[in-house]
Amino acid sequence: MSAYAVFAVGLAALSTAPPYVTPLWTMIASGLCGAAVLATRRRHPLLSFVGAIVLWPLSLAVGSGAESMLIVIALYSAATSRSAPRAWLCFGAAVISGGLGAFALAVRGNAGPPILGLGPSDFPRDTLLDWANVYAIIVVALLIVTLLGTNAGHRRRHMNDLLDRAERLAHERDQQVEIARALERERIAREMHDVIAHSLSVIIAVADGAHAAIEERPEKAKEAIGRVAETGRRTLGEVRRLLGNVRGEDSTAGDGHTPQPDVSQLVSLAAEFVTAGLPVRLVVTGAPSVDPVLGLAVYRIVQESLTNVLRHARRVRSATVTVTWTSDDVSILVRDVGSMVTSPSDAGRGLLGMRERVALYDGFIEAGPHEDGGWRVFARLRWGER
Asked: What domains does the chain contain, in order, with CATH numbers?
């Protein structure tokens, strides 16, 4: 606005200086109109552009011609803020307005009131103010302004697109991190449930047995108490390992940290339940997979199934665990024979954990009572070519 004011005042001073006097009221009117065009440029760019192309030929006809600066500003703004087709449409409108302005300037230079401090005698009638020459100069100037504006606008839009893309990628990255954290928390919660539920069930069963035998068989009770302590220490080590994963510590360093269990420990798992008073029979056929994650899933499914039997079944005569390995999948069958199983009030978490483990290997799981009055869990996990 200040640059336009200085430019307009300077041209007005030249145009109104004797002997080339242009009416003062036209200077004031065109200046006020030009100021209005600039004031509405940001809020109403289309209205401002229309005002500039209308005011331009009028200023060249009867004013100081300072409003030529407005068409340059308006066209450059349109080219930078709008798409290329719209920018060239504005260029076409400016060219039409420029044609009218060139004609008005040619007529005025030869016969009309002075402009820019120059009168009719200063312009050779057949060269300087020839309409075609002036129009060509105007078209070239408008073309240069449009090219500069479209180039700047394209660069600005490209930078904005890059910034938007970077923000989207950062947002997606943050979402992936949050998803990974949620999955890790879910995995750790599932592991904690399996470890603590199993260990507490074994500890309670062994402690009940020790309490019942403490008077008649104190040596057996003492041995049972030792197994309770051993189970508690092992559970504490697994809990420390899981909490170390939460804190980002090295799970293999320090005392009390143990490696993840796998199928090689199914025998010791069955023996632990036998010690707790559950008659378990383990049958494993086929060559187990060396995949540690699959081995952990099989171990946890067996562990959770036997834990539910230990906690909720009554007068269990036997519990059979059958793990069958093939080249394509592994099937797990845990079945107990005894009295009717009470409906586990908190089995939903354990069953959900087993379903999630099975889903990782495109398998399925079935759990429910069977005709012999016990509970049956059957799971199949695919581990071959998937």
From this structure: 2-129 (no CATH), 263-386 (3.30.565.10)
